[in-house]
Structures are given as C-alpha cells and as structure tokens.
Amino acid sequence: MLFALMQLLGGIILSVGWIPQIMQIIRTKSVADLSLNAYLLMLLGIGLMEAYALRLAADGTGLAFLITNTLSLAVVSIVVLLILRYRLPRSPKK
What we know:
Strand content: under 5%
Largest sheet: none
Order of helices and strands: HHHH
Structural class: mainly alpha
Number of strands: 0
Helix content: over 70%
CATH topology: Monooxygenase
Shape: elongated
CATH architecture: Up-down Bundle
C-alpha cells in the first residue's frame, strides 16, 4: 500500500511538472526552442507504457500506475498539440 501511494504521488508530481511548460507555451505562443521529435518520442514511450498499465490494471494490480501514466499521456499530448499549433505557418490576414 505504501509503495502504491508513493508511486501515485510521484507520478502526479511528474505529470504536474509539465504544467509550467504548457502555461509558458500558451502565454508566449512560442515553441521555437522545443523539439517536436523529442516530445513525440516521449509520447510514444508513454503510450507503450499505457498499454502495459492497462494490462496491469486489468489483472487487478497497477491502478496507481495506470492513473499517473494516463495523466502523463494527457499532459505530454497537450504539449505536442501546442507545438503543432504554434509551429504551423499561419495564412496572412487579408
């Protein structure tokens, strides 16, 4: 039980750690210094871990891992979407 709580708390802290990056992107609308490839690799890795977390949860173990991994998947997905949004060339206004 203690280790599940530690995993849950650690995973939440890691996931919440992305929020300042998200807020910075939204505030500045700048993603020039962010590597889309790096974030896509993180997204792929977290996605693979999500499949594993789902399997563990289906077996009755690893619910804390599923919760925190899903949270990480969500926040990294937001960063990727923001990078794509702010890197796309905008059409000139007429």
